[in-house]
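User: Predict the structure for this protein chain, please.
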Amino acid sequence: MAHAAMLLLATHGPALAQSDYPNKPVKVIVPFPPGGTSDIMGRMLAEELGKILKQPFLVENVGGAGGVIGTERGAKSVPDGYTLIQTGVGQNAVAHGLDPNLKYNSLTDFVHLSQVHSGPNVLVVHPSVPFKSVKELVDYAKVNPGKLDYGYTPAASGHMAMELFKQTAGIFMTGIPYRGGGPMMTDALGGAIKVMFINQDVALQHVKAGKLRALAVSSTQRNPLYADLPTVAESGYKDFEALSWSGISAPKGTPQPIIDKLDAAMAQAMTSAAIKQRLESQGFVVPEPGSKHYTAFVKSELERWTKVIKTAGIKAE
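Assistant: Here is the predicted structure, written as structure tokens:
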């Protein structure tokens, strides 16, 4: 009898553990330091998932190497549903173009649950330059190759947006690398660099104050916070798109019943009024929820930025 009971427990134990998931706190690895857009998005979603699934979802910041260190740790974590990973454009698309020897594969080592945010970069210039449109900037750059300095943070979405823009417009400008968005913004406001692509939420206060002039957004649709600003695509470069984005993924091998439960909870979170309001008030777009959409999106972004990086000949810093 005891043997039969033990056998039953061994057989049904994992199924039981999955059916009452989660029965303890869940860790969400955010592969960047606290305070930035990625951290804010990770904490916003963790809070909402905690409400829905009645267990704490606790953010662990694991910064370094542009998100690669934390993402690698997430990929190698136990696939039991108690470690989730924030995935995003830098660590899960751009990184593959920069380093063919990454220790994880963003297409095969994760179950991508849902995209969380999407937002454009804004092409901005210092008010000391005369350009009032993308066309005026491109015309000047074509006649004066290399004379315009632009700032970028290596491998960030703004860096990729600028590389794609230069390739699409057929222009050459001189890139000045920065370790982070803070020092780059300081130099942009001071006029040390004249041009950059920067996340729309970061740029907004400086554009409103007249300290930077916005020329275009990098999404295919106009952004509500910059309603009068054209897209780069509208400015003569059809289908141009370069987005900042993030989502939530689980390590490959996470049991399907747990994936299904997380998938449903993510869909509920992403359609909640609280998340919709927070995202839209900062100029972000609420993306289509669901694993199918996010899996296809990660693949398309990885292919897009690998091609841009290869064409530009960019190497890892």
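The chain has two domains: 26-118+244-312, 120-226.
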